[in-house]
Amino acid sequence: MSLGEDRQPKGARPSLFLERQSYRRRRLTDAARLLPILGAVLIALPLLWPSQSASGDGVPLSSAILYIFTCWALLIVISLIFGFAARRMAANDDSEPESDRWPR
C-alpha cells in the first residue's frame, strides 16, 4: 500500500462529518422551520393573560393588540433575515448537489 492511495475501500460511504457551509445552511433551515412554532407560541401568549373584565388588574386590550402586532412585525423581520442569509449562502455555495455526490 503506497502513501498516495485512498485508505477507504471502494463502495464505502464518505465521512459523516459535514462541511461547515452545508452544516450552517442546514441549521438555518432548521431554525426557519421552527419560526412558525415560535410565532404561534408568541401570538397565543396573550390568551394566558388575565382579562380586564374579570378583575381590575387585567391587561388592557390596547396593550395586548400592541404586543400581537409587535410579535407579527418581529416575525416578518426574522423571516426576512433568514431569507437574505439563505440567499447569500446559496450564492456562495459552488459545490455540486448532494444527489450527484453519492456513488450509485
Summarize, please.
With 104 residues, the chain is mainly α. The protein has helices at residues 20-44, 61-92, 98-101.
What are the main properties of this structure?
104 residues, single chain, elongated
Kindly describe this structure.
The protein is mainly alpha-helical. It has a domain at 22-47 and 61-91. It has helices spanning 20-44, 61-92, 98-101. Helix 1 packs antiparallel against helix 2 (61-92). The longest helix is centred in the C-terminal third of the chain and has 32 residues, at 61-92. It is elongated.
Q: What is the helix fraction of residues, given as a range?
A: 55-70%
* Oligomer state of the chains in this structure: single chain
Strand residue percentage: under 5%
Q: Which class best fits the helix and strand makeup? A: mainly alpha
As a whole number of angstroms, the C-alpha radius of gyration is 24 Å
Helix and strand sequence:
HHH
Q: How are the secondary structure elements laid out?
A:
Layout: H1 20-44, H2 61-92, H3 98-101
